[in-house]
Write a sequence for this structure.
């Protein structure tokens, strides 16, 4: 660890407490371990304007924490070969690779920023051999209008956007379900504390039921919703 990083952790310990700083050290070690294990580079924060996104409802690229993804899918078991995974705002592809460790039929990601999408293509190519699911497709498009393929059954949102982009994504999902009725699960991975506006929008849409709601850390929580026919 560099002297600068050590100094930042000491400042954090003084301002937010030793437990908080210790948690941050563990998280940093976990990031480095998993990135090296998979041979990928996805641990950055990128602001929308840095990758040509001007919509104020778009959020920055901030990857899902490795341990959090595992904790979420403990609550949502995936039987082999039955489900198709979609990551909304797939960024540098970390979640596509993590989903590829589960026995999904195929894994899709839709990302607005071409620059992040190119990194995702490289990361997926590097990690593919080590994954259970080999059919992983990072795609470029706008979640607002992109038509959801009619085999998608598990949808993941790591707080990618709000407002009309999120409303549009929910509408595209519902259109797909109307064309091809099937069970669907939706995961929201969002900041805490405080009420999540995305959770409110899912509940207001009225076609999904809350199955689980849990904290993952002092900063993050998860909601899992399903259609009533999900088993
Ligand atoms: C918080 S990051 C999530 C990255 C990745 N899913 C993960 O969890 O590691 C949100 C991503 O949503 C993307 N995004 C923002 N607006 C979008 C839109 N309209 N359509 C598709 N992706 C969008 C951002 O560029 C960013 O990469």
């Amino acid at each position: 660890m560099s002297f600068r990083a050590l100094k930042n952790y000491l400042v954090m310990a003084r301002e937010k407490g030793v437990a908080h700083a210790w948690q941050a050290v563990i998280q940093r070690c976990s990031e480095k371990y998993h990135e090296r294990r998979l041979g990928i580079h996805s641990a950055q924060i990128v602001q929308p304007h840095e990758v040509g996104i001007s919509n104020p409802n778009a959020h920055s690229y901030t990857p899902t924490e490795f341990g959090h993804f595992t904790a979420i899918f403990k609550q949502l078991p995936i039987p082999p070969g039955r489900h198709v995974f979609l990551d909304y705002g797939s960024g540098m592809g970390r979640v596509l690779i993590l989903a590829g460790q589960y026995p999904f039929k195929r894994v899709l990601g839709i990302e607005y920023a071409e620059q992040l999408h190119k990194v995702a293509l490289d990361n997926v190519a590097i990690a593919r051999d080590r994954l259970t699911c080999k059919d992983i497709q990072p795609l470029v498009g706008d979640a607002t209008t992109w038509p959801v393929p009619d085999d998608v059954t598990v949808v993941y949102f790591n707080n990618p956007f709000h407002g009309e982009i999120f409303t549009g994504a929910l509408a595209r999902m519902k259109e797909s379900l109307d064309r091809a009725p099937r069970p669907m699960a939706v995961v929201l991975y969002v900041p805490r504390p405080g009420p999540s506006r995305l959770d409110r929008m899912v509940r207001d849409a009225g076609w999904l039921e809350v199955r689980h709601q849990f904290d993952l850390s002092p900063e993050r929580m998860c909601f899992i919703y399903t259609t009533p026919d999900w088993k």
Notes: The pocket of S-adenosylmethionine is lined by residues 53, 58-59, 61-64, 87, 89-91, 94-95, 110-113, 116, 142-144, 158-161, 165 (CB under 6 Å).
